[in-house]
Amino acid sequence: MDKIISKLNITQNVTLITLANIPINDKSIAEIFTSLANANINVDMISQTSPLKGKISISFTLQDDVLFNAIQTLKFYKKDIPSLRIDVNSNNTKISLYDEEMKYQPGIAAKTMSILYDADIDIKMITTSEVDISYLIYASDQEKAISLINDIVK
């Protein structure tokens, strides 16, 4: 297989939090992330759904060791948003793939997704930029994923 990735980074002990049923209101979303920052909680991967019936969901990741503080911070918003649902999924690994050439070479996301899916590795979240792709997977799949992806690292 072609070597298409120049850097592979692994982040262990990652928690995925999804906030569901948030009314579309940029101010409340900004307030949520500001309160996490004020609690000294570093948020990593962030993904927002398209609006549906005036509501959105936002998923983001953080380190497992700040989960308790994050939940305490987020609970405050249940008063203002009674329909808010906070879903938590811990013990994950983030695999980040980087190469400057990604912005000129289509299909890298498709190739790497196929590698993971063909190996029965569940992808919980994907975030991208022009030059990097990050996958959130179960920690138990980390070694298998790294082994497969190492085959395409330059």
TrEMBL record:
Keywords: Amino-acid biosynthesis, ATP-binding, Kinase, Lysine biosynthesis, Nucleotide-binding, Transferase. One of its GO terms (biological process) is lysine biosynthetic process via diaminopimelate. Gene3D superfamilies: VC0802-like. Its EC number is 2.7.2.4. PROSITE patterns: ACT. One of its GO terms (molecular function) is ATP binding. InterPro entries: ACT-like_dom_sf, ACT_Aspartokinase, ACT_dom. It comes from the Bacteria. Residues 17-96 form the ACT domain. It catalyses: L-aspartate + ATP = 4-phospho-L-aspartate + ADP. Pathway: Amino-acid biosynthesis; L-methionine biosynthesis via de novo pathway; L-homoserine from L-aspartate: step 1/3; Amino-acid biosynthesis; L-threonine biosynthesis; L-threonine from L-aspartate: step 1/5. GO terms for cellular component: cytosol. Belongs to the aspartokinase family. This is aspartate kinase. The lineage of its organism: Bacteria, Bacillati, Bacillota, Clostridia, Lachnospirales.
